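Fig. S4 source data, part A: sequence.
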Amino acid sequence: MAKKTYTFEEICRDIRGRNFQPVYVLMGEEPFFMDQITELLLKDVLTEEEKDYNQLIFYGADTDVVTIINAARRFPMMSEYQLVVVREAQMIRNIEMLTNYVKNPLKSTILVINYKYKTLDRRKALISAVEANGVLFESQKIKDYKMPGFIVSFMQERSIGIDAKGAQMLSDYLGNDLSRLNQELEKLVLVLPENGPKRVTPELIEQNIGLSKEYNNFELLKALSLKDILKANRIAQYFEKNPKNNPIQMTLPVLFNYFSNLLICYYSKDKSENGIMAALGLRNSFQAKDYLFGLKNYSAMKVFQLIGDIRITDARSKGVDNSSVSDADLLKELLYKILH
């Protein structure tokens, strides 16, 4: 029998439908998804009255496997379920000792193991037991280039629309810090109209988060792909005047990602719009257009050199072989190399 692989969306949907599993092991590098699942269980499994006697929360640094097993083997009091949550489980010694319990878990107990920033050994018996009798979820970091698509999907789950430019603006500004992204999106949701369609626009982002819809990394990439020297320099000047919202440490990864992908495009057999989208895993055609323009305006050798220049600029921005040049001047110098 094939082992069931659970997605974040499937797990949340089942919880909301009260289709609970006796064991949830949530592990991996990205704590955001794990925290969301845990909070949903804490909210939906028990009523407020039931929580007094049937909800137990442990912390890995302050507990052990025997205590957790003894708690899990209790029966609920005046409730269908009891909920046992173990936070920071990566700090528990000998966690494999949970295997025997997980092989035969109590159906009236919902045991939640949060194993953050690392993963359990999939070769061990505990993982097999979880896969047979509960939910195993590995929470992985979203890659930077996938963030715009994730933001669109994340908002759709909340029945809120966001256009591609808005998603790219947020992605460039926030990177793949999902907790911070969630905080900023919550701000935007609060200012949406109560009635009628709900949609996050670049104008709304500009007004409530402080990002300019005209002067941002998204527009900088477009200017560079077109070799629009005037627009690129205007954006650089805006960044210099607004360094808090536009630090060079946010811009350099965007440039590195673009030119690294552009190099991939040169080795792609199909250089059409669809071919570029397939080669780079893009979801929006407007992103492919930036690469098509880049192929026209930059040679493969130039791109290869620029990747090296971006690496050097990144090192200098962190103080390597640089004691006096400001971040603004470093960016201007890099843009000159790109555009000339």
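Fig. S4 source data, part B ends here. The CA atoms of residues 102 and 221 lie 51 Å apart.
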